[in-house]
Amino acid sequence: MTQTTVELVIFDCDGVLVDSERICVKVDAAVMADLGCAFTEAEMIEHFVGSSIEVYTALVEERLGRRLEEGWQRRYSHLYRAALEDELTAIDGVTEALDRLTAGFCVASNSEHSALRRSLEITDLLGRFENRMFSAADVPRGKPAPDLFQHAARSLGVPPERCAVVEDSAYGVQAARAAGMRAFGYCGGLTPATRLAGPGTVVFDDMRDLPGLLAG
Predict the structure, then answer these.
(1) Distance CA 33, CA 60 (A)
(2) Going from the N-terminus, what domains does the chain have, and what CATH number goes with each?
(3) What is the pTM (predicted TM-score) of this model?
């Protein structure tokens, strides 16, 4: 892809702005145990982190060998809420990175709007993204489809080739590439660098480095 000036930086939320993935994988383990569904921690990191609820459900159903009822995940939502309320923090270095960005920025997440808003509120990041928050609930397909990133760019009037996406999951960087956007894979969390690397993607492990990488 021809490198052009970045006018819009699209951040994922979980694992990029807020350090939630470790917390959610721990709760995922409890949920899987209750369902009687065996996934190792490595499998949960590989398959669950950054996935849409549709992808997540399909994986669980395949492992269980049966269908789950509509809205099955809602009976576990209180577990995630409680854990995030108690433990959630902003990703190390993200506030410094946001302060130094010269391009506009927004957040685009597979989470529902209410969960997205709450995570940003808990970590004191909400004010930075007010009126620039996009959810997979806004589009037909969540990540790894490109719909969400395309919707965010279209809503803010920026062409895809002038957008950069910051993601921490293989699903997310796949969606960014499919959307025709530059991808920046943050490997400072659970996902190893090898899962993020690929065409049109810069992999990095310190969020403070992001403004310089975008400028480069």
Answers:
(1) 12
(2) 8-19+88-215 (3.40.50.1000), 21-86 (1.10.150)
(3) 0.86
